[in-house]
From TrEMBL, chains A, B:
InterPro entries registered for this protein in UniProt: C-N_Hydrolase, C-N_Hydrolase_sf, Gln-dep_NAD_synthase, NAD/GMP_synthase, NAD_synthase, Nitrilase/CN_hydratase_CS, Rossmann-like_a/b/a_fold
UniProt keyword Calcium present: no
The protein's enzyme class: ligase
Function: Catalyzes the ATP-dependent amidation of deamido-NAD to form NAD. Uses L-glutamine as a nitrogen source.
Nucleotide-binding recorded as keyword: yes
E.C. number: 6.3.5.1
Official protein name in the record: Glutamine-dependent NAD(+) synthetase
GO molecular function per UniProt: ATP binding; glutaminase activity; NAD+ synthase (glutamine-hydrolyzing) activity; NAD+ synthase activity; nitrilase activity
Any single Pfam family the record assigns to this protein: NAD_synthase
Residue positions binding deamido-NAD(+): 381, 410, 520
GO cellular component, as recorded: cytoplasm
Annotated residues for binding of ATP: 298-305, 405
Family according to the record: Belongs to the NAD synthetase family. In the C-terminal section; belongs to the NAD synthetase family.
Length: 549, 549
């Protein structure tokens, strides 16, 4: 039996394009002699469709699409994922399901049993867990079909009290197929391989695993579909961050062979390389799927906006990126020169708009109210917000989307101006620590200097007052980033972090800043998620409370 | 046996103040001869503590507080709610639990079985559902103790496949106690009474129900704890929107009597009266719990900002409200006069800051880029955003929190400027439709004219271009609000709404606008929730997708 694995980029709620893409790949698979073609979890509607799953019409459109797909499968079988109604009068209204389609009809349905409901996942919000399992017979093979998290219950640390494969294995399947929507984080590829390998070994069965690819606003899916033999050995790995279809022969003794050159990665990609590829896909899909072409951003001469500009130029083409220099009286000459050099290196569009007259007008207008009071954060923020108003005016006039250039370290401690530099349609590096931004800049420059060396080596500064440096208000970034990671990703208490050897006063101050910035982060753009714990939908904190410190 | 029900206002993560408040009320209950005092769900840490529940330290602090409370209970019993670790090595790490404390010790623990995971609820994110249930014997009575949602599984439309009371009833309890954190919506009080009454009748047992009160950022808890006899008759109702303690005698035949004058409401409060009280509590707790005192807002002369100003003055005192008139060249004379009249009626602080010089500076600065292009939404938004920069500068200089004045109709269709009038720390009327804002204004004016009649009767306008009216771009609000409600709250498709008799073109346009505004709503402040379906944490939609229409 020849099985095609199709890892494709779906568009949430775009039934027309998703259905057309699935049918196209059924035709391709047929032409290549496949008996069965396997698509990813919830491919019909896209993952995550979120509260659109609560609309009856949305669920009906899923079924209509599935019927169109079934009509195409007269001489080839396929597996597709879609939400289906729970007909019992109890529990949630839907299942997260897989259709096994053969001879133009739905021959079998598998429902997901283990529903992730942590970090960015909300599956209990919509779905009832399945309690019934059975294998599917096809062409002399018996398939144990499961959906993503169904294989994610580890022996050491079981997240769930049941394990669907423990039930399915009693029917003596000779192969496992798992369809998934497993979002990207720079370390998640290795975790996936480990958990899936463990399943293949535990059940002594080969395993074919199909993942989604493509970005859905903040969530990036990296593909990298996987094939294991019954010893748990990874025998093939489909490409990461791109659409692909590949063919595998399931032989009589349930061994797997394939004819194409193996795409197994020779070595693990570095974290930064993965982050780079993830962000490029994230930007591209955000623009493509929302029907926009051109980005705008403010270029300060600093490293963050330089990196975002370079990434945007790579993702959208430099001709679609408008970089705006917005110097104030505090902008240093080298900053302006660094920004100009970057624009030259990239070949993107650019404008220079000085903000002096505007900030003067704000200060003059407010002089009756601010009379006698010293320059402080109010005036600093006026600069940042004036820039945002200018950039948004350009968006409104010309149809750009503003890219946010805040990094994760700033987002964590609230080192940014709400309605100022925290604006944007999408945050490009909001899940990348400042120390990683430096690495990313070096990575972008690996073949030629794109980001001016000076932007990389000079001390970071917001340039909102004379001679300001980030380290005036914050610890050095190498210390700051580690404390933030311990608190945000490790969920460690200040006591624990202090015990690790960090300065007590610094730790307490950083954690306090992280907590106090919740109200700011609540109003920031969606952040492209590249780490296991990004700010946004995967981290849900109270705004008004008294916090740990 | 005398049972005290204590409905109190907790502060998330403020273990010190929550514990002190609980202990104070144990002392008060003891002084009043109570045998048992019952506090609300998760009272120890506050509800919803959200992802703080993922911090080990947070859970340890809950247990430490519980032990302090237990030490106080040497001669009185109490029931408190807190998260507790799940000791089994499978499933989620926590239970949502109730401690029954007697003789200074935890005598029994009940875990919640039915975990709401819809709308604003995320309980499966943290908690494992309980599968074991047993009653608690105390002073000759047998108590069936459950937690909130445990009683929420209706016969007609069961949300869950189990029903804890069906198991507990086999131990022949003579009373039910339920501790809850049931958030306010203007129609939720009646639903609660109906469901709880149904439980009392079904199990033929009296029922004492203790709810939380107080606002936690966007979520408002309205109290209104309830006592039913075994026929399902509501025999007492504690006050709404305020802290309270009340005493009930559970007699030998499990009948309930009480000595205080009944606080059973003679008639249902109107929706608008409830919304009014809910918002006042919401504003007050937002400021109090975040340690701020003073609010600022922009006053346009229109009804929305007038209503918000009046509500803020009531919640915080007029001396703590700064109303800023920010006229532009498009502001009409009557708008300025209406705003001035309001300020006079309320006696709040006020400033007038004309934005002309600032918008002129923006337009002059952008003239090279905008040369030859007509005035459009770019210039309109510059006005709105200039006002936001001014208001935020006042916040930064003087320590105000900016109140957002958008209503639900605007929030729905995106009729507002991101980083302009959509700014603010908290959205006061973002869950109140424009048609309800008019009702709210009338309600506020019921004793004397606070909101100038002219603000109520004139046609709504954003005044961002000459002679602009909302109805230039939007349908009449009475039609618009109904279509939005059908789509957002009813989750009806356009086809269904059109079948109800609404104009097809209007319906499709409104739904399209609602969908397109997702990216704006993502970045708006938390919205005080007063309806069963508010924008914010209870409605989670994709931003980039192709939508229903």
């Amino acid at each position: 039996m020849k099985i095609a694995l199709a890892q494709l980029n779906y568009h949430i709620g775009n039934f027309e394009s998703n259905t057309a893409k699935i049918i196209d790949h059924i035709k391709i698979a047929r032409k290549n002699g496949a008996d069965l073609v396997v698509f990813a979890e919830l491919c019909v509607c896209g993952y995550p469709s979120r509260d659109f799953l609560e609309f009856d019409e949305f669920i009906e459109l899923c079924e209509t699409s599935a019927q169109k797909i079934a009509a195409e499968c007269t001489d080839i079988a396929c597996i597709i994922g879609l939400p289906t109604p729970n007909d019992k009068n109890e529990g949630k209204e839907l299942f997260n399901s897989a259709y096994f389609i053969e001879n133009g009809k739905v021959k079998a349905i598998a429902h997901k049993a283990l529903l992730p409901n942590y970090d960015i996942f909300d599956e209990y919000r919509y779905f009832e867990p399945s309690t019934e399992f059975s294998c599917i017979d096809f062409k002399g093979h018996r398939i144990a079909l499961t959906i993503c998290e169904d294989l994610w219950n580890t022996i050491e640390n079981p997240l769930y009290v049941t394990r669907p494969m423990d039930i399915l294995i009693e029917e003596k399947p000779d192969v496992m197929i798992n369809i998934a929507a497993s979002p990207f984080a720079y370390n998640h590829d290795e975790e996936r391989i480990e958990i899936l390998s463990d399943n293949a070994k535990r059940y002594n069965l080969p395993l074919l695993y199909v993942n989604n690819i493509g970005a859905q606003t903040e969530l990036i899916f990296d593909g990298g579909s996987l094939v294991f033999d019954n010893t748990g050995k990874l025998i093939d790995e489909m490409p990461y961050f791109e659409e692909s279809i590949a063919y595998y022969n399931l032989n009589e003794k349930a061994t797997i062979t394939f004819e194409h050159p193996s795409t197994l990665r020779k070595e693990k990609q570095s974290d930064i390389e993965q982050i780079h590829r993830g962000i490029i896909l994230g930007i591209r899909d955000y623009f493509y799927k929302s029907g926009f072409k051109q980005a705008i951003l403010g270029l300060s001469g600093g490293i963050d906006s330089a990196v975002v500009c370079a990434l945007a130029a790579e993702a959208l083409g430099p001709e679609n990126v408008m970089a705006v220099l917005l110097p104030s009286r505090f902008s240093s000459d080298h900053s302006i020169k660094d920004a100009e050099d970057l624009v030259k290196n990239l070949g993107c569009m650019h404008e220079t708009i000085a903000i002096k007259d505007i900030t003067n007008a704000f200060e003059a207008t407010l002089s009756p109210q601010f009379k006698g009071l010293p320059f402080n954060i109010a005036e600093e923020n006026i600069q940042s917000r004036s820039r945002a108003v200018l950039l948004m005016a350009m968006c409104n006039k010309f149809g750009y989307i503003l890219l946010n250039t805040s990094n994760k370290s700033e987002a964590a401690v609230g080192y940014g101006t709400l309605y100022g530099d925290m604006c944007g349609g999408i945050s490009v590096i909001g899940d990348v620590y400042k120390t990683q931004v430096f690495e990313l800049a070096r990575h972008i420059n690996k073949d030629r200097e794109i980001i001016p060396e000076n932007s990389i080596i000079k001390p970071p500064s917001a340039e909102l007052r004379p001679n300001q440096k980030d380290t005036d208000s914050l610890p050095e970034y190498d210390v700051l980033d580690k404390i933030i990671a311990e608190y945000v990703e490790g969920r460690s208490s200040s006591a624990t972090i202090i015990k690790m050897g960090y300065d007590e006063k610094t730790v307490r101050r950083v954690i306090r800043l992280v907590n106090l910035a919740e109200h700011k982060r609540y109003q920031t753009p969606p952040i492209l998620r590249v780490s296991p714990k990004a700010f946004g939908m995967g981290r849900r904190m109270p705004i008004v409370g008294k916090y740990l410190s």
